Amino acid sequence: MSPPKVLFVLTSHSQLGDTGKPTGWYLPEFSHPYDVLAPHTQITIASPAGGEAPLDPASIDKTDKSSAAFLEHKETLWKQTEKLSSFVGRAKEFDAIFYVGGHGPMFDLAGDETSHKVIREFYEAGRIVAAVCHGPAALVNAKLSDGSYLIANSPVTGFSNDEEDTVGLTSAMPFRLETELNKNSGGHFQKAKEAWSENVMVAKGGRLITGQNPASAKAVGEAIYEAIFGDLVSKT
Q1: Backbone phi, then psi, for 217, in 5-degree steps?
Q2: What are phi and psi of 53, to 5 degrees?
Q3: Under 8 Å CB-to-CB from 107, ≥6 apart: which residues?
Q4: Do residues 6 and 95 touch, judged by C-beta distance below 8 A?
Q5: How does DSSP assign 109-160, residue by residue?
Q6: Considering the entire predicted model, what is its pTM?
Q7: Which of 115, 143, 152, 159 is nearest to 12 (CA)?
Q8: Res. 31 pLDDT band, cuts 50 70 90
């Protein structure tokens, strides 16, 4: 029996608004969920443009053993991504889709109609839709076939306004993620009592999983695992 399949999606956007600074996807938000899921699932990596997806250099922390090892040994994963458009109509081949964070998704995936279509197909095929930190930017405007927002009336989280203010990047963002997630969910945005603390929301019977910040990345991977396999106790 073949292992379950998970589609990881990275941003293709490399510029932080008009700051002149680079951005992209955030290393621990890829490495930590990958470490949880890779031994048990078959992982495919996609991005809107395909090819090399930009790693945010500000996310490199070599004191993080998982991220340091990932950076050294796994670069083909983000340098040879498949085009996200090639996964339209293929939701039934997978068990879950997961959007990695970093500021990049705020600029491309938030308004990417192809991404929205893939999300809709995954969810309506009974698959798991997950994202962490700024990854939920990909979900904020995604709608189902009936025209309702995917996140409507569901607990959801993502990088909070307080956290964005703390890193001094609110003015560089095209929108405030917490504000839009709260609006389109109907007021159901949930955040940790303390900024930067781990916080994961599991909704819609385990089929909508969101994490607030980098500290939540491993827990999002574990929640995806649990949604696929049903029992984390069995994880080695």
Answers
A1: -65, -50
A2: -95, 135
A3: 11, 13, 15, 17, 23, 174
A4: yes
A5: GGG-HHHHHHHHHHHHTT-EEEEETTTTHHHHT-B-TTS-BTTTTS-B--S-
A6: 0.97
A7: 115
A8: very high
